[in-house]
Design brief:
By secondary structure, this protein is mostly beta strands. Helices cover about 0% and strands about 50% of the residues.
Length: about 130
């Protein structure tokens, strides 16, 4: 059974870097055609797609966050990590990791949260001094 679990600090100071880890079980993150994404939801707002890392290690980001976002991975531990730099209080949100794709069929990566099928439970991140 596929499971995703986010972990990281619940409180980050403005201007610092937020780093969140998503540990995956039940499937290898290098399995063909899967994309591993980060999505967030700020208070009172809808889901916002942040970016993904593909099974090849290729990354792609939302244009609005691209300049201060990176995603890396540790395949030996089957996990991927979000780094969001220079955070502000507007980055306060529940952050989710999620999976998109089909191991049997290639699809282009998605920026639509509704198309992601497995999700972590989410982790609250607050940016405050």
């Amino acid at each position: 059974q596929v499971q995703l679990q986010e972990s990281g600090p619940g409180l980050v100071k403005p201007s610092q870097t937020l780093s969140l880890t998503c540990t995956v079980s039940g499937v290898s993150i290098t399995t063909n055609y899967y994309y591993w994404g980060w999505i967030r939801q700020a208070p009172g707002k809808g889901l916002e797609w942040i970016g993904y890392i593909a099974w090849t290690g290729t990354t792609y980001f939302s244009p609005s966050l691209k300049s201060r976002t990176s995603i890396s991975w540790d395949t030996s531990k089957n996990r991927f990590i979000l780094h969001l730099h220079s955070v502000t209080p507007e980055d306060t949100a529940v952050y989710y990791c999620a999976r998109y794709g089909d191991s049997e069929t290639y699809y282009s990566g998605s920026d639509n949260p509704d198309e992601y099928d497995y999700w972590g439970q989410g982790t609250q991140v607050t940016v405050s001094s």
